[in-house]
Design brief:
CATH architecture: Orthogonal Bundle
Number of helices: 11
Strand content: under 5%
CATH class: Mainly Alpha
Helix content: over 70%
Number of domains: 1
């Protein structure tokens, strides 16, 4: 009897997991489906359409006419710099608050971690006022500063859990050998943080890749506009090419999906290890 109930429970569990997976994947399926049709076919009934002809030319037009490579270059540059800055600052901040003895270490650590409770878009208008005053709008820094600032608390939280698990004897031995503070941090501690570094890098990249609200507020010229702006290239005053817009969105989402699928195990492993060790 127990074996029978175990089998039934396993079947129910798999049914629930498959249902959740389908629900999660449906928006991506819907996006690709509509990107292969024509704009007229999108106004038919039903959640999905069966295109009369697969319009792969939508992707060609999105790639060529949407300034895709220019926006892609900007997105890669901004996100790469954001990831590097978050990693370096979070490692140094976590080490300073956990290992170095100073009066305000607990307060500073709490203050930085409180940033996890503030939505990134809550500072949209104050930041715009500040950037306008100091002439930072339409610059790389207009995106880089908030992306780093709002990714840092999460990065520090994960780094702190790993640094707490590193034996202090390693640092004491390094000091005895004459190592300075920066050499201890980057030559001894950092190599031991590889799972956490991978997790923070991936999550920072995924969180900032498709961000559009801040970019559209702070940027008005094409110089530093990122990949989501490519959709606006096919928006007209009276009509829009919806099929190509869906193709642009599919191309924009592709890098993030690929990164997540390939490196998903590092995310779960890093978060789980950081939670246990913290």
């Amino acid at each position: 009897m127990k074996t029978t109930w175990q089998k039934v429970g396993k079947v129910i569990l798999w049914a629930v997991l498959v249902s959740v997976a389908v629900i999660q994947l449906f928006p991506l399926i819907w996006l690709v489906d509509f990107s292969l049709g024509s704009s007229n076919e999108m106004f038919t009934n039903g959640l999905l359409i069966i295109p009369e002809t697969l319009r792969f030319d939508n992707y060609v037009k999105a790639f060529v006419d949407g300034n895709f490579m220019h926006y892609l270059r900007n997105s890669v540059l901004v996100n790469t710099l954001a990831v590097l800055l978050v990693l370096v600052i979070s490692i140094m901040a976590a080490f300073a608050c956990q290992r170095m003895k100073w009066k305000l270490s607990g307060f500073v650590s709490t203050l930085l971690l409180m940033g996890m409770m503030i939505p990134i878009h809550a500072t949209l208008l104050p930041n715009y006022k500040i950037y306008s005053t100091i002439h930072l709008t339409d610059t790389l820094w207009a995106l880089l500063i908030p992306y780093v600032a709002f990714s840092l608390p999460q990065g520090m939280f994960l780094m702190t859990g790993f640094i707490q698990s590193v034996p202090k004897e390693l640092e004491e031995a390094a000091v005895m050998d004459g190592c300075g503070i920066y050499r201890i941090v980057f030559r001894i501690i950092t190599p031991l943080l590889k799972p956490s570094i991978a997790t923070v890098a991936i999550m920072t990249f995924l969180n900032n890749w498709n961000e559009f609200m801040m970019a559209s507020t702070y940027l008005s010229t094409p110089t530093w506009k990122t990949l989501p702006f490519s959709v606006l290239e096919f928006t007209g005053e009276y009509s829009s090419n919806y099929a190509v817009q869906f193709a642009v969105m599919a191309l924009t989402a592709a890098p993030a999906v690929i990164v997540y699928v390939i490196l998903n195990k590092h995310i779960t492993k890093g978060v789980a290890m950081g939670a246990v060790k913290g």
